[in-house]
Amino acid sequence: MTSSLQQIMASTGNGLDYDKEQELKTFDDTKAGVKGLVDSGIQSVPKFFVASSEETCNEKSDLRHTHFNVPIIDLRDIGKDGARCEIVKEIGIASSTWGFFQVVNHDIPQDITDEVIESIRRFNEQPNHVKEKFYSRDKMKKVRFNSNFDLYKARFANWRDTLSCLMAPNPPPPEEYPEACREILLKFSKYVTKLGQDLFKLLSEALGLNSNHLTNMGCADGHVFYCHYYPACPEPNLTLGHTKHRDPDFLTILLQNQIGGLQVLHDNLWVNIPPVEGALVVNVGELLQVISNDEFKAAEHRVLANCAGPRLSVASFFTTHFEPSEKLFSPIEELLSDDSPPLYRGTSVKDYIDFFASAGLPNDSSLARLRL
Predict the structure, then answer these.
(1) CB count, 10 Å around CB of 354?
(2) Using CA atoms, how far apart are residues 10 and 231, in angstroms rounded to an integer?
(3) Which of 329, 318, 339, 264 is nearest to 292 (CA)?
(4) To bridge 361 with a disulfide, which of 80, 102, 243, 250 should be the other Cys (CB 3.0-4.6 Å)?
(5) Rounded to an integer, what distance in angstroms lies between the CA atom of residue 281 and that of residue 317?
(6) Angle (nearest 5°) at CA 258 between 296 and 42
(7) First CA to last CA across the chain, in angstroms?
(8) For 4, which DSSP code?
């Protein structure tokens, strides 16, 4: 692996003999990810990570617009009728205007979330010969580790490594999860399942539907953990931790450590979502935008690279794309009328994910191809 990393390090110049495809393959074959580059002592960003100035531009940031803050919603009194009505209203407004919000008092203990974050650090910081056993580009593997799912399709690579774990339905045997994070991810999954069900009920009510409508449709039937490790970057102005995108799921619940970098595009401005102790970030996925017929909006978001690190996060995607179902999801009939006709044709979850994955990031065409 050492010689491969030295070859990549040597390619950070601007030589005319640069071969991007070969450099990507060399990087991929190390099975060490971005952390392997950092551990090798790299001092500059390899060319295949370098983004255009348009991609990394921070002019549309919220630095001069501090009045923009992603809503923070307190779920403490979710069981009390009067308070629940207010929570439903807040979630409805946030989902239709921002596509993002943070939740506090969500009943997932702090010691659980702290241990989840620590377990992801532990997995990524163990010797590479342990991690590489999980390295794969087979998108149907229920547990896999790699760097950049779209490495060979994207315009530039992101400064990020990812461990993906299917948690439901039909998860793999427990022993297939990495030992470094197995026990705590299984515990966390139970809490996330409950929180997801609660959020889908609140979202259903915000749409004026029966509280069980979205769960009865199957929106909460499955979830996958995408556990991201963003090492410190020597030249954070040249690349991104995660290219701008919308999530191709129904709903995402994100746990992050205290190193910032997450931004959402709101009113054509990149707005920081600073970590809040004890909070979880929730965002609308593209499939929820489809079935809500644009009542709820999936917002573009990205993660900046950072000279500090590692940034750690666990994104819980509510999706069932591992299931071979042909069930179609289309705008909910109760939300349609002569004045509000369907805006999208139906799609199966698997077909939607397959198209998203094949296109690579950034990807603006997944939703567009379904528009009527």
Answers:
(1) 14
(2) 20
(3) 329
(4) 243
(5) 12
(6) 110
(7) 50
(8) H
280 Cβ contact list (under 8 Å, min separation 6): 102, 103, 106, 108, 113, 195, 253, 254, 255
Tokens in use for 23?
């450099």
Closest CA to 250 of 95, 21, 69: 95
CA 306 to CA 128: how far, in whole Å?
Answer: 23
Q: What is the mean pLDDT of the chain?
A: 92
CB atoms within 10 A of CB 21: 9
Q: Tell me the three state secondary structure of residue 120.
A: helix
pLDDT in tens, 249-258: 999 999 999 9
Question: Residue 164 pairs with which residues in a beta bridge?
Answer: 144, 226
Q: What are the CA-CA distances from residue 337 to residues 188, 203, 281, 311, 372 (Å)?
A: 40, 20, 33, 45, 15
As a three-state string, the secondary structure of 341-355 is CCCECCECHHHHHHH
| Res. 322 pLDDT band, cuts 50 70 90 | confident
Do 346 and 328 form a contact (C-beta atoms < 8 A)?
A: yes
Cα–Cα distance between 11 and 152 in angstroms, integer? Answer: 17
DSSP state of 329: B
pTM value > 0.90: yes
How many H-runs (helices) and E-runs (strands) does the chain carry? Answer: 12, 12
Tokens of 252: 């995402």
